[in-house]
Specification:
The complex is a heterodimer of chains A (115) and B (111).
Chain A: E1 4-6, E2 10-13, E3 19-25, E4 31-38, E5 42-51, E6 54-57, E7 64-70, E8 73-78, E9 87-94, E10 96-97, E11 100-101, E12 105-106, E13 110-114
Parallel strand pairs in A: 2-13
Antiparallel strand pairs in A: 1-3, 3-8, 4-5, 4-9, 5-6, 7-8, 9-12, 9-13, 10-11
Chain B: E1 4-7, E2 10-14, E3 19-25, E4 31-37, E5 43-49, E6 52-56, E7 59-64, E8 69-74, E9 83-93, E10 96-101, E11 105-110
Parallel strand pairs in B: 2-11
Antiparallel strand pairs in B: 1-3, 3-8, 4-5, 4-9, 6-7, 7-8, 9-10, 9-11
The chains are: A mainly beta (115), B mainly beta (111).
């Protein structure tokens, strides 16, 4: 079974703090994704990575950066947390087979509260 | 207007009822996903389809590419089906593909 784990289930940070959210997958997937989920808005893509050290901006990258130094690990960084970044953050991974992205597998989510 | 619209937003059903959740999209896609999210956050992929119909247990998903519409049906619904059901479409962008998500349908099945 594919397993996608996230470093924390709940996190409370103060405005201006630097926040690291880590995601690890154990199935050698090429693609990894970071989403945020807010009520009424659904999931929105922040960044994704299709290979080590490669990244592409999603729909809402402002205020975030990412790092993928190893294939299994994809980190989301909030350089200076703000209250409007309070949200549920979900990581996902997927295999690329024959140039086609397969099903995405999601982590359990990290609920971040910025005070 | 969102690229992916789901209806209804909220749905309450009695145990045993047949349930339909609809998804309409306005962009070209390569595939459509139905996802299930239980309280606590975990998301599970139910179906990925690009044409026709798929069935898994009591769940059936259909897609009509010409009409840009998909439906998720649950037969003989049960309280354990209570969850948020999310429709997502796969669009080709840049070097990869990205999913664009609907806002979700909150389903509650009462016993």
């Amino acid at each position: 079974d594919v397993k996608v784990t996230q470093s924390s289930r709940y996190l409370v940070k103060r405005t201006g703090e630097k926040v690291f959210l880590e995601c690890v997958q154990d199935m050698d997937h090429e693609n990894m994704f970071w989403y945020r989920q807010d009520p009424g808005l659904g999931l929105r893509l922040i960044y994704f990575s299709y290979d080590v050290k490669m990244k592409e901006k999603g729909d809402i990258p402002e205020g975030y950066s990412v790092s993928r130094e190893k294939k299994e690990r994809f980190s989301l960084i909030l350089e200076s947390a703000s209250t409007n970044q309070t949200s549920m953050y979900l990581c996902a991974s997927s295999l690329m087979a024959g140039g086609v992205q397969e099903t995405q597998y999601f982590g359990p989510g990290t609920r971040l509260l910025v005070l | 207007k969102n690229e992916v619209e789901q209806s209804p937003q909220n749905l309450t059903a009695q145990e045993g009822e047949f349930i339909t959740i609809n998804c309409s999209y306005s962009v070209g896609i390569s595939a459509l996903h139905w996802l299930q999210q239980h309280p606590g956050g975990g998301i599970v992929s139910l179906f990925m389809l690009s044409s026709g119909k798929k069935k898994h247990g009591r769940l059936i998903a259909t897609i009509n590419i010409q009409e840009k519409h998909s439906s998720l049906h649950i037969t003989a619904s049960h309280p354990r089906d209570s969850a948020v059901y999310i429709c997502a479409v796969r669009r080709k962008v840049g070097y990869g593909n990205k999913l664009v998500f609907g806002a979700g349908t909150i389903l509650r099945v009462k016993s």
